[in-house]
From TrEMBL, chains A, D:
Database matches in InterPro entries: DhaK_L_YcgS, DhaL_dom, DhaL_dom_sf, Dihydroxyacetone_Kinase
Gene Ontology CC terms: cytosol
Presence of the UniProt keyword Transport in the record: no
Top-level class of the enzyme under EC nomenclature: transferase
Native source organism of the sequence: Streptomonospora salina
UniProt-recorded name of the protein: Dihydroxyacetone kinase-like protein
UniProt domain DhaL: residue ranges: 4-203
A Pfam family the protein falls into: Dak2
GO biological process: glycerol catabolic process
UniProtKB/TrEMBL annotation, chains B, C:
Organism of this sequence: Streptomonospora salina
Enzyme class: transferase
Recorded GO MF terms: glycerone kinase activity; phosphoenolpyruvate-glycerone phosphotransferase activity
Residues covered by the DhaK domain: 7-330
Transmembrane segments: none
Entries under Pfam families matching the protein: Dak1
Pathway: Polyol metabolism; glycerol degradation
GO biological process terms, semicolon-separated: glycerol catabolic process
NCBIfam families: dhaK1 (TIGR02363)
The keyword Thylakoid is assigned to this record: no
Cellular component terms per the entry's GO annotation: cytosol
InterPro entries reported for this sequence: DhaK_1, DhaK_dom, Dihydroxyacetone_Kinase
Name by which UniProt lists this protein: phosphoenolpyruvate--glycerone phosphotransferase
Signal peptide: none
Length: 208, 332, 332, 208
């Protein structure tokens, strides 16, 4: 992963969030307060602008700036979670290029940060249910010598599968947990946005 | 969507601009949304700051002023503020005596305010957080994010505000707020869903003869859906839910808040209060203070919450103490 | 119909019972509906009484108390009180100095209060009537029942209340009320119809993209139906209607009330206020006082009224004077 | 008209208003505030009870009690109008029996009272548009020697015709006048209740 690819990733997330803004809102309305679409949109709008305006000296700088922008623009649960996760990932990548294994380590750091901050376990029906299998798939692919594109594709596939798996779950974290059993039967909006983010990475890295 | 608005995107800033125009005694940063007293932090007084998503007006911005908050940081609609807003608010409120931060217990609010508190701690400011979690519709267990902060926020902000105003120290103000929260429980029902400007339509569909029971203040569906029944029956269930969670003995004294969610007229709130008063009287509980009105709303949702707070000895003088804010005013 | 109520027939008494329970400082006759100050008429002070149909809460019952009304007589929902209620209220308010009766200009209100005044006159009580007719949506001509009394009632009751409280004589209190009315004009729009408990359904059907312009406070349709537009455009038309009827020169000072009709949340009212403030600033009119909130409502109707009152010199101290009522409270 | 017939009339109005309560409310909702049905119902409920409980010594006493009850129970525009009108009529009939011409004079007094108090002209789209032709028809029938039943039937027919004639009118009095041109195309609720009252008299006097 080089700096330009990192930028492309962020732009790709921005475009995906723009496209899926309404759906994310509707998913959140079903089990939460309906703002996940506008939250992500506000955050990535600003992040895309910030990343376009900066002159980064490392891959990590792109992710750190993205994370910091999310923290200062999003609010809600997803803002600090995605924001600090991306900052944690960015800290791991302080060179102009990163090998797949390094990106895997960065994603692992991001996942750890989400789990530390939010305290969610897999199965709690949160973004963790998409992110954990995605990171796992990425690291496995990279460890077995896979290229960035292949690892990212595996991660995106796993994220989407994990996202779909949240549907039958009963939420135990975040707003959806207030609904108790009524949260069953809905896909978690944060898991969907995580899947969008991983798919954007796969798309950005498709040629790598 | 039928609202007085220009565009969904400008709803919040336009409303805040109107609030600023209406209240020259407050200072409103239209960029960050942070509202402070125009004269700034009060020398020698512990600061009191609160914040959270917008859409709950008058909470929190309407409770800035003498006897209550020094600053409020409203986030986007139903979205907790970002850490930068919270740090701005606390810095404005801090006179050197430290600041109490009132935070409603939501995952997002807790995380954002925690990040702010870390930053402020690094700057050498003293910050004590009071977490409000009064809503018994949510079980306080590892299977949930814990009870939500709702109607009791009014009581916490007023009583902690009274404590700060009379010159109590940081730990005392925080302690007053925590004790009010511990003494309070709430429960809410919705007759209609609310519509956020960005969604443009109600958050859920509710047939003409059904209500959502155990709702929060963010337009989310409640614990269950029920047939619409008489006010007496609905209120009886609500009072049971509150007092089952935190029983009050016969002979106790209580402060009761019947809070409108935004779309319910005052006459209905009084009708509900009448039912609450009768039920508490049956149980031998004396209501020593009450507040009936819109305090912690959920945009245009029709519905109400009931908060019962055990009126511990020192609460009353602090509740009665002078307050001069857009949303609550007496004694000055 | 989705309301907190037991039965349509008991709605009013149940709500009044709750009001009575919430406000022990007032005395409520649950039979007649008449609300008075618990301590009765104030010796040496001119009495101030108002009344009208119910469904406009906090008006009028919520404005009984120090600095404002001595008694209120609420009728059935949207139905003016009967003469017996008005006579009971005036008798309770009269300390021997005479009583000012604030009457909103509706055929029924005028006739019922006139009959009461005759009876009271026969009993030797002095009664002065102040007629409120501020709503410019209705032409004041022989082709109508004349302008309706709406939002300006808040200003008339507060300022006449201040006049009575400081010891002014009967004629002076009445004159203050009349001058406030003469200086005030209002205009209202509705986003939704309201539902009376007895009808059980909205008074009119309004498509999602239409509003009623020039409505009163009794759920009746307005002067015309229009497409929903931006708040800026709607408010601009409202302000034009008000100021076309009673122009204010650049350099004048005004008291502005942005009044919610019951189902509109505070954030929208502030948004509307922001638009009003900008428009008046453009015209060189300074808003010296404002009130933003639900004061003169129409059950659960979503909508608002805008009242602009020229702030004649003596109005401000009377507006600012202490008031301690359920619906308005400051200075005490 | 004897005392019993006067009582039957009041009971008849009570029954008609009970039956038509909802329709009166709907008519009033279209051009006013929707309370005319509950107003009339509340008033005549009380009036029927008051008249049943009393031991009147004249026809007029029945009407006066009805009027006083309406004044003290109804409120709104219709309460004082109907109430004082019936009191004015009652004052004219201080014997145990009244001839048709006397009843006609009493009805004339009622109409005058409504017009004095409300200030409405025929054509203003109010109860006057039903009451004026009804009183006119009654007096004409009675003057030409008609019996009570026939006069009352003529009055009821005229009231109903007058009531229907309010539909195309633009209101100039009462709440409906606030609607301006939008009041056109609706029948006036007060004209409807007046027609009900006259029809109840015709029914009560059918055998006379
Ligand atoms: N404790 C948590 N741990 C991990 N993810 C969480 C947690 N709480 C909430 N989330 C995620 O955040 C998403 C909601 O984000 P968003 O709607 O933007 O914030 P909010 O819930 O504050 O309105 C949920 O769908 C869920 O995936
Ligand atoms: N000035 C008036 N003169 C005669 N009749 C009137 C006048 N104003 C109103 N009315 C009658 O009263 C009826 C309405 O009565 P009601 O609905 O009970 O009272 P309100 O208008 O106060 O709600 C109208 O339909 C009309 O016939
Ligand atoms: Mg959300
Ligand atoms: Mg949110
Ligand atoms: Mg009426
Ligand atoms: Mg009516």
């Amino acid at each position: 992963m080089d700096i330009e690819l990192a930028r492309t990733w962020v732009r790709g997330i921005g475009a995906a969030v723009e496209r899926e803004r309404e759906r994310l809102g509707e998913l959140d309305a079903a089990v939460g307060d309906g703002d996940h679409g506008t939250n992500m949109h506000r955050g990535f709008d600003a992040a895309v602008a910030a990343v376009a305006a900066m002159d980064p000296d490392s891959v990590g700088a792109v992710l750190t700036t993205t994370g910091t922008t999310l923290v200062s623009k999003v609010g809600g649960a997803s803002g600090p979670l995605y924001g600090t996760a991306l900052r944690a990932a960015g800290k791991k990548l302080d060179a102009e290029r990163a090998e797949p294994a390094e990106v895997g380590a960065a994603l692992t750091a991001a996942l750890e940060e989400v789990r530390r901050l939010g305290g969610a376990q897999p199965g709690d029906k949160t973004m963790v249910d998409a992110l954990a299998p995605a990171v796992d798939a990425f690291v496995r692919a990279a460890d077995s010598g896979g290229r960035l594109g292949a690892a990212a594709r595996a991660a995106a596939d796993a994220a989407e599968e994990g996202m779909r798996a949240t549907e039958p779950m009963q939420a135990r974290k975040g707003r959806a947990s207030y609904l108790g059993e009524r949260s069953i039967g809905h896909v978690d909006p944060g898991a969907v946005s995580t899947a969008l983010m991983m798919r954007a990475l796969a798309d950005a890295a498709a040629e790598c | 969507m039928k609202k007085f608005l220009n565009t969904a995107d400008t709803y919040l800033t336009d409303a805040l601009a109107g609030f600023a125009a209406a209240h020259p005694e407050l200072s409103v940063n239209l960029e960050s949304g942070v509202v402070t007293r125009a004269r700034g932090a009060v020398a020698g007084k512990v600061g009191l700051v609160s914040g959270g998503g917008s859409g709950h007006e008058p909470l929190h911005t309407g409770f800035v002023g003498e006897g209550m908050l020094d600053a409020a940081c409203p986030g986007e609609i139903f979205t907790s503020p970002v850490p930068d807003q919270a740090t701005e608010a606390v810095r404005a409120a801090d006179s050197g005596e430290g600041t109490v931060l009132v935070v409603k217990n939501y995952t997002g609010d807790v995380m954002n305010f925690e990040m702010a508190a870390e930053t402020l701690g690094d700057e050498g400011l003293q910050v004590e957080t009071v977490l409000v979690d009064d809503d018994v519709a949510v079980e306080d267990s590892t299977f949930t994010a814990g009870r939500r902060g709702t109607g009791a926020t009014l009581l916490v902000e007023k009583i902690a505000g009274g404590s700060a105003a009379r010159g109590d120290a940081l730990a005392e103000v925080a302690e007053a707020g925590r004790r009010v929260n511990a003494a309070s429980r709430s429960f809410a029902v919705a007759l209609t869903a609310c519509t956020t400007p960005s969604a443009g339509r109600p958050g859920f569909d509710l047939p003409e003869d059904e209500i959502e029971v155990g709702v929060g203040i963010h337009g989310e569906p409640g614990r269950r859906r029920e047939k619409l029944r008489s006010a007496g029956e609905i209120v009886s269930d609500m009072v049971d839910a509150v007092l089952d969670d935190r029983p009050l003995e016969s002979g106790s004294e209580a402060i009761v808040v019947v809070n409108g969610l935004g779309g319910t007229p005052l006459s209905e709130l009084y009708l509900v209060y009448g039912e609450v008063a009768a039920l508490l009287e049956e149980r031998g509980i004396t209501i020593v203070r009450n507040a009936v009105g819109d305090y912690v709303t959920s945009l245009d949702m029709a519905g109400c919450s009931i908060t019962i707070c055990e009126a511990q000895e020192d609460f009353l003088p602090l509740w009665d103490a002078p307050v001069n804010t857009p949303g609550l005013r007496w004694g000055v």
